[in-house]
Design a protein that fits this description.
single chain, 183 residues, mainly alpha, AhpD-like, 2 domains, 9 helices, globular
């Protein structure tokens, strides 16, 4: 059970806070538990959601590349909520069960196609070593370009932070959903 109450629109203190709620509800088709937990601090949530809006809707990244980045960020944070709810989008983006399993089981980038391996290697270096080798950086830049590299960093920052925040708050998965991530 979550460590904080799930906020409601009625629990927002004023019109400005209700506007944050309404923005999330409108842009995302509702206020899921992850947002309801974060909305215990509407201003912090609004800042985070700004980056999330870019990461989810406004990057120039190919869906497959973004899915690789999202799942790797979630896995490296052991973020069961982010990992689980992003499974359908990853499959829609063309990630096979084998690729998803390789990320989940920490086998990736071994066994992945070169382009996928470069993306996952970039993520792993950033999240484990907090820096990226020149060779990995150049390999990814050749795939996504300079703007794409910055988009990858934005996606990484958002989803990795979100995974940690939801873990810390112990946010429940949506009803009827079981975790697709074993630790």
């Amino acid at each position: 059970m979550t460590r904080v109450p799930y906020a409601t629109r009625e629990s927002m203190k004023d019109g400005a806070e209700q506007a944050i709620w309404d923005d999330i509800e409108t842009s995302r088709g509702g206020v899921a538990r992850n947002y309801a937990a974060l909305l215990n601090n509407p201003q912090a949530s609004a800042a985070m959601i700004g980056l999330g809006t870019h990461a989810r809707y406004n990057t120039t990244m190919e869906p497959r590349i973004k899915a690789l980045a999202v799942l790797t960020a979630a896995r490296e944070a052991c973020g069961h909520y982010v990992w689980t709810v992003n499974q359908p989008a990853a499959k829609d983006a063309g990630l096979s069960d084998d690729v998803i399993a390789a990320i989940r089981e920490y086998r990736a980038p071994n066994g992945l196609e070169p382009k996928d391996a470069a993306i996952v290697q970039f993520m792993i270096e950033l999240l484990r070593q907090h820096r990226i080798s020149d060779a990995t950086f150049e390999a990814v830049r050749a795939i996504v370009g300079d703007a794409g590299v910055v988009d990858m960093l934005a996606v990484t920052g958002y989803y990795h932070t979100l995974a940690h925040a939801l873990n810390a708050l112990d946010v429940d998965l949506p009803d009827g959903t079981t975790s697709a991530l074993t630790y």
